[in-house]
């Protein structure tokens, strides 16, 4: 009768991980998980900072546009541009949306006022000029100026 027994042959080398190698792998995995969770927590903070940057950029644009158009008279809106007349220099000033930017065109010069814009809508509503802009990150802002005797004031 033959007995079946399991015995380890001490002369054979078995491939496998040692306990130290397993502990080292678990340690590295835990560090990677901790770093990943920290990145996820900070992504929300970074997102909020970027949103506030676009808001600041919009407010700076509105103030700059108000200063650029001080003393100018509103003429009309044609599609994606507003036309103002500068009575002192006897020429038109265009505020135009082109290639993801809101620009000012004055006497052949080109001045970008706002960038990273996906769409802009210029409207004249009663005695107001309304600008609505959507940034590439889907944030929307709007501003309006009242038209009083040819001058604009922000409301």
UniProtKB/TrEMBL annotation:
Membrane-crossing segments per the record: 14-40
Keywords: Competence, Membrane, Transmembrane, Transmembrane helix
Places the protein is found: Cell surface
Pfam family name, one: N_methyl
Main location: other
InterPro entries listed in its UniProt record: ComGF, N_methyl_site
NCBIfam families assigned to the protein according to its UniProt record, in alphabetical order: IV_pilin_GFxxxE, pilin_ComGF
Descriptive protein name: Competence protein ComG
UniProt source species: Enterococcus wangshanyuanii
Name of the encoding gene: comG6
């Amino acid at each position: 009768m033959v007995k079946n027994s399991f015995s380890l042959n001490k002369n054979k080398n078995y491939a496998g991980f040692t306990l130290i190698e397993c502990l080292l792998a678990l340690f590295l995995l835990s560090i990677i998980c901790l770093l990943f969770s920290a990145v996820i927590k900070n992504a929300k903070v970074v997102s909020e900072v970027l949103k506030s940057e676009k808001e600041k950029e919009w407010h700076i644009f509105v103030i700059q546009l108000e200063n650029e158009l001080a003393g100018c008279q509103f003429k009309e809106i044609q599609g994606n541009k507003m036309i103002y007349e500068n009575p002192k220099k006897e020429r038109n000033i265009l505020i135009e949306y082109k290639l993801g930017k809101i620009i000012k065109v004055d006497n052949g010069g080109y001045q970008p006022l706002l960038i990273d814009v996906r769409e802009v809508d210029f409207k004249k509503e009663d005695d107001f000029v309304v600008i609505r802009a959507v940034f590439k990150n889907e944030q929307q802002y709007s501003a309006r100026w009242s038209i009083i005797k040819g001058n604009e004031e922000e409301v």
